[in-house]
Amino acid sequence: MPDNTFENKLNQQMGDFRFTPSEAVWQKLETDLRKRNKRRWAIIWFISGLVVLSAGLYFYSQLTIPEAFNSITQNSGKSINTENNTADGNNSTPPLKGNNNDEVYARNGQSSTEETGTTVKPETLKIPELKNQSEITVNQQQKIDKQGKSQKGKIEIAQSDEYNVAESEKTGEKTKLTADTKDTDSENFKRKSAPQKVFGKDSANPAITMHNDDPAVSSLLIGGLQNVNDSAISTRNELKIETKKRAITFGVRIDAGRSANSESAFEQSKSADLSTGPTSGGSPSYVYPYSQEPSFGWSLGIWMRKPLNPRISLLAGLAYQQYRTKTSVGTQGQGGLVLNNGVRDVMVDQYYSQGNLETYQNRYHLLSLPVEIAIQLNKGSKLPISWQLGLAPGWMISSNSLFKAKDSSGILYSDKGMFNRFQLGLQTGFSFRLFRNSRNALELGPVFQYMLTPAFKNQINYKGHLSFAGLRADWTLFTLKPRQR
Amino acid sequence: MTDQRQIIKDCLRGKIIAQRALYEAYAEPMMGVCYRYTKSVQDAEDVLQEGFMRVFTHLHQFREEGELGGWIRRIMVNTSINYLKKNIHYRNEMVFTEPSMHPVLEATPEITLQAKEIASLIRQLPTGYQTVFNLHAVEGYTHVEIGKILGISENTSRSQYMRARNLLCDWIKKWDENTKSENYAR
User: How far apart (Å, rounded) are the C-alpha atoms in residues A389 and A374?
Assistant: First the structure.
């Protein structure tokens, strides 16, 4: 039986042992603490600023759009010229005669008739004071069908290369600017040709209906209606301006799916060799097999998108990602433990033995700045499908992921110093744009991301690359339009 | 207890006054811990500063089920060992040789020394002995745990402790004899 009297007495005396440190200790500590606090506040202010800026931009966009529409309504209600004598004397093209002798004046450089094509039924803005209807439709699609019945009673000004303007049609008290049929007086216009002018005519109170299927196009219409006020529409110039200055959209992004941390093929083969057992020299080079199973991962972010041309756009944003994986562990240990991770000794307070007693959730918190190109694959406007490809440089804020100790103990522990903080991700995916007529369009689709940078530093036996596969939802919040000239 | 909770809350909010209060409450006993593991006061103060920095950084992890003093003490012990392993001067002295045979436990003297005197004797032990002795005799770690902490076998830890204990008993005896002879001379 060992004599513990010595230990007990020593323990009692040493337990109460005190020693006064010099004042310099606190002074150094205070300096370090103030530095740490400053850094923490800088992060808080940065995030708050970002939120306030986003909110400000959102409300700014909400205020400016209705004002623009108000001005159109007022101008158009007062001054649209519906007199019969509205033909522009400068027109080189003679007036087009319709069934009811209403005239549509237009100028045309090249004419081209398209028999096929689809028209998306746009939403309608009506000016209530006016009874009779003259309808002007602005459509973004590439080609417009002249023969379809649904186009009757509208003039359609396409944002694309080709569009048709037809004569107006009068039925009873109603006057309409009508898309013409092939066998009547009609003309097809190319946007890049000479400027066109459109006049509706009615002696009664005409009503103007604007079909607007996209916020960006509404600004087109603004320009058009203002020119109506001056008895001439110069849409060509407006279209040119709009083509050059494209609206920037802002939105939020949510990803949800399965995240994993796996070794690359090369590293797997290397660790397989090591895990076959001790080497012939008898040195303790045994590496225990270690794996992380996939688990739920998600991300939340904000983005801004600038169209480079009608089908390609550039997207940049800021996202928080939380990737998770699962590891089977044994019993949990408590208390100070110094382990060697292959680079240095680390002290751990909490650790696990190997086993299958419970499942441990490894969490990886990342802040990334994704930059990607989105290419619209199909020409159709009903359900645009885009392919996205981009890079996402990021910073691993923190992680509680377990490592395996490099010594023979095989203890699983967390070591914050062993993560590669900088992470470069490669991401790709497809998206289907839903509710495209709405201001707040929604894009849904699958996405895959792979971190090119290993999650763990080189010296550890398991490097691991984070990856994610899941569904992505991009929701457009608002659009910032370029200024009108 | 309520005061302590309030101090912890304020520390978590980054209030320097609260951090100072916590430091003042625990600086002296924790300096005692650091003093036992190091060879100089300067080193002990370095460990104390690093340890308190870790305390404030990880204070959100403290569960109120346990005692705050015990939690801080464990951090100080861990920081001390880390310091010994990082510092080249100590690392070179911490050489643990595999024991060929266990030393025999000598007769235990009666401890008549004050805490500070015992602490200064512990500090005179070779660094390896000193660390193992502190961890086992004062902190209460088992030899298995010490083996894991220091990366040595359980037997090595046991052997190191025995040698440290015998050496310390020897010094305590000599100290007592010197004291007695001084008193006798007076």
Answer: 7
**Coil, strand or helix at B123:** helix
Q: Is the pLDDT of residue A68 over 60?
A: no
Q: How does pLDDT run across B120-132, given as a tens digit for each residue?
A: 889 999 999 999 9
Q: Any residues with CB less than 8 A from the CB of A274 and at least 6 apart, and which? A: A285, A286, A287, A461
Query: The complex's ipTM?
Result: 0.87
Interface check for B81 against chain A (CB to CB < 8 A): the answer is yes
Chain centre to alpha carbon of residue B66: 20
- For the record, the structure tokens of A461 come out as 């036996």
| Closest chain B residue to the Cα of A38, Cα to Cα | B14
**Going by C-beta distance under 8 Å and a sequence separation of 6 or more, which residues neighbour residue A223?**
A235, A237, A238, A241, A484
Q: Which residues contact A356 (CB under 8 A, 6 or more apart)?
A: A328, A330
Q: Nearest C-alpha of chain B: how many angstroms from A277? A: 21
Which residues on chain B are in Cβ contact (under 8 Å) with A22?
A: 45
Give B179 to chain A, closest Cα distance, Å: 19
B136 contacts B163 by C-beta, under 8 angstroms: no
Q: Does A17 touch chain B (CB under 8 A)?
A: yes
Return the number of CB contacts < 8 Å for A and B: 125
Q: In this predicted model, which residue has the larger pLDDT, A138 or A436? A: A436
Q: Does A266 touch chain B (CB under 8 A)?
A: no
Q: What global pTM score does this model have?
A: 0.43
CB within 8 Å: A336 and B81? yes
Residue A196 has pLDDT above 60, yes or no: no
The pLDDT confidence band at residue A228, using thresholds 50, 70 and 90, is: very low
* Whole-angstrom Cα Rg for chain B: 19
H-helix or E-strand spanning residue B19: helix B16-37
Q: Taking 80 as the threshold, does the pLDDT of residue A390 lie above it?
A: yes
Put simply, the answer to whether B137 touches A10 (Cβ < 8 Å) is yes
Structure confidence by residue, pLDDT tens digits, A16-45: 788 899 999 999 999 999 888 888 887 888
**Pairwise CA distance, residues B57 & B55, whole Å:** 6
The predicted pLDDT at position B46 comes to 93
Neighbours of A369 (CB within 10 A): 14
Question: What distance in Å separates the CA atoms of residue A46 and residue B1, rounded to the nearest whole number?
Answer: 36
Contact A349 B74 (CB under 8 A): yes
- pLDDT higher than 50, residue A322: yes
